[in-house]
Amino acid sequence: MTTGAAQAGPAAYGPSSRRRKRALMGLGGALVAFAFLAPYLVMVLDSLRTSSDVKSTPPSILPRVWQWDTYAQVLGDERFLNWLKTSLIVASGSTVIVVLVAIPAAFMTARHRFPGRGLFLLLVLVTQMFAPTALVVGLYRQFFELNMVNTYGALIITNAAFNLAFAIWILHGFFASIPLEVEEAAALDGATRFQVLRRVMLPLTLPGLVTATIFTFIAAWNEYVVALTLMIDDDRKPLTVGMRAYVTGYEQHWDQLFAASVIAVVPVVILFAVIEKHLVGGLTAGSVK
Amino acid sequence: MGSVHPLVALLWLAPALLLILGVVLYPAIKLFDASRSEFSITGLRRGDAGWENYAKVLDHPSLGTVLVNTLIWVVAVVAVTIVLGLALAQFLVKQFPGRRYVRWAVIVPWAASLIITSQLFVLLYDYNYGIVNHLLLGAGVIDAPIDFLGDDSWTMFSMVVVGVFVSLPFTIFVFIAGLNAIPDDVLEAATVDGARPRQRYRSIVLPLLRPALMIATVLNVIYVFNSFPIIYTLNDRNPGYLHDTTITFMYKLAFKSQEKDVGMSAAAGIFNVLLILAVVLIYLKIINWREETSR
């Protein structure tokens, strides 16, 4: 065997081989991360090109000219600000409703026995499986008859209803894990059920509340099909629907579309990473008992 | 767990019940109403249609294509997602430098709006300017650019790739949770007993992972079936229903086709609802839902 030849036989199980294995895995990890991020890197790079550079042949990896003022343009665009306003109103409104409605429901089902409890939880589970997509024609008829097409209210309650389940499961789990003694001690002090909830239980479920809040906000922020159907006026559309106007048969501002996309995606990704730990539990709930 | 009078409980559950009845159940009833009505092209109800809308859906010349597309879409996306997701999860539970950051990167397609990711892929797939064609041409894999979204033999494949890409994060995280739940000592005991890695995997890890596998599969079937933005966006410039699934087919019938037939779309919607309900029943069976154990 000549010197310099790779000698990593199966018998070479020293610390250096272990270190090499870890380094290789780190490299593999970097590749996996790159695979998931690559499309979004293209999005960020495209938001910094001129519109003609986005559509140039052959495409270049890096922008030919770095054009930073697309972001200023988008943020100064009145249409964009209207869409952003709708997204903020709808996402915040749905989140407030979901949290206010989910807390009493989760508290009651997690800490008390009563007839119909299982039925209620079953109903919650079934609504979780029903994305509004399949019901969109029914939703449209309903809000059309209520004269609520084009209203924030319609979008807010729809998003609230379809995201309620996740919040109930998450909070249910947190409430259920609080030891009975904590609640009993408070009850002995003469606290009413509502006081027990507010002063004793809620502070203990704070991580659950944060998770429910962020999850609902993001789901409503990203919602597409109901908004597409219900919001017909241009200045009432949320970001997801409105943004499409940047690239149509008439105007093709890919740079602006992607700048708007970056603005819509980045905050949400950061928030999502915060609640990572609790996501699976909330989405597979009913199964994790 | 204390007992409580049903009326008191009802009071605490009332807001949630109102929301579910008002915005999930009522639209479902409206959907059924609409499916039994006749509408003008502007969406005004003109009268009863009986079961005629259902007959029109069943007679629709594109129904066969749409059903086959739906089957291919759901089976292909879910199958590839489960296999790839399991492999990636297995990798991501191992200890290596930077694992935390890799997991964060994996979250991104999940957190980003589906419609934004879909629009992004429209450009990535572009015939003239898309980076996918550019890279494949550069690497010499292909001689001429591929029209990923316009060439009928490529459209479904291109959509499935995006479907897998956005379904992987949730799936990977479900599997990571499942793998982490397998107690270390069980695996150690097997190693001590002389089980080799492959045996250990086949006879211990996989059986213990079964619940996670089932849950990930059924939930993905529902999510992928319901998935609207990917097909709606990537298939946007193709006329007709050649690459539509039952969900986009239903939407186009009411809002985008020449016929703008709300009644027929509603009938198609009822079929979709029944399909989802069937899968939900399977899910309930898998997670072994019982009233008493639901705590």
Distinctive features:
heterodimer; A: 289 residues; mainly alpha; MetI-like fold; 2 domains; B: 295 residues; two-stranded antiparallel ribbon; 12 helices; 3 strands
Tell me what the structure shows.
The complex is a heterodimer of chains A (289) and B (295). Chain A has 289 residues and is mainly alpha-helical. Chain A has helices at residues 15-47, 51-54, 69-76, 78-111, 117-129, 136-145, 152-177, 180-188, 193-204, 206-222, 225-230, 239-242, 254-274, 276-283; one strand at 112-113. In chain A, helix 1 (15-47) crosses helix 13, helix 3 (69-76) packs across helix 13 (254-274) and helix 4 (78-111) runs parallel beside helix 7. Chain B has a two-stranded antiparallel ribbon with strand order 2-3. In chain B, helix 11 packs antiparallel against helix 12. The longest helix of chain B is centred in the N-terminal third of the chain and has 30 residues, at 6-35. Chain B is flat. Strand 1 of chain A pairs parallel with strand 1 (2-3) of chain B, so a sheet runs across the interface.
